[in-house]
Amino acid sequence: MAKRFYKKVEVETDGNGYVVKLDGRVLKTPGKMPLRFAGKTEANLVAAEWQAQGEDILPNTMPCTRLMNVACEQTPSRRTELIKEFRAYTRTDLLCYRSKSPQDLAARQEKNWQAILNYGAQNHGIALATTTGIKAIEQPKNSLKNAAHYAQKQNDVALTLLLHLTASFGSAILALCVMEKRLQIDTAFALSRLDEIFQNERWGADDEVVKNNRLLLKELCLLAQLIKE
Known about the structure:
Blueprint: E1 2-3, E2 9-13, E3 18-22, E4 25-26, E5 36-37, H1 40-51, E6 56-57, H2 63-73, H3 75-91, H4 103-124, H5 141-152, H6 156-169, H7 172-179, H8 185-192, H9 194-203, H10 207-223
Helix pairs in contact: 1-2, 2-6, 3-5, 3-6, 4-7, 6-7, 7-8
């Protein structure tokens, strides 16, 4: 845990975008690259996280900084890998795997998840099949191709965020809908935990899981501010 070593946090333009400065020094990534932002909103969000630090610098309270570090330092050289990863998540999307029983859970999945899948199919050509079996099912090749194309169109920050949301939800389509502001982050999070919520209603919740979910949702809500209008 590092001690706070700066007093003043500023956002400035340097001709190639925006930078955050700590006591006049440009903020850098862990790999010592200048952390440069294409938009002022991104820079302001990161600056706010550094300004909010107390005597100790707590990285776990700075999700936007962490994501921007990855987007700046790692994503440019890993784009092909990340696009393949998004395609793979689409192939085994959470929303495609339904319960046979109990019937009220199956009905809840159909009611809440199918409309999301329909959006992906109708607006992006990502039509995915569903199953009540436990084995992975093959998805249409063209749908997977369109999913990869969607990921490829994203800039480095958006691609990094897209993959983070996808991993958090277990669903590429939920992440896509959040990126397009089709769903609010808390709604998408609840949909990704639909089975868990159903079981909690019947048997009660695990306090540790509830705590972890609350912390993750808080982080995702902060990161969602990076989504462009």
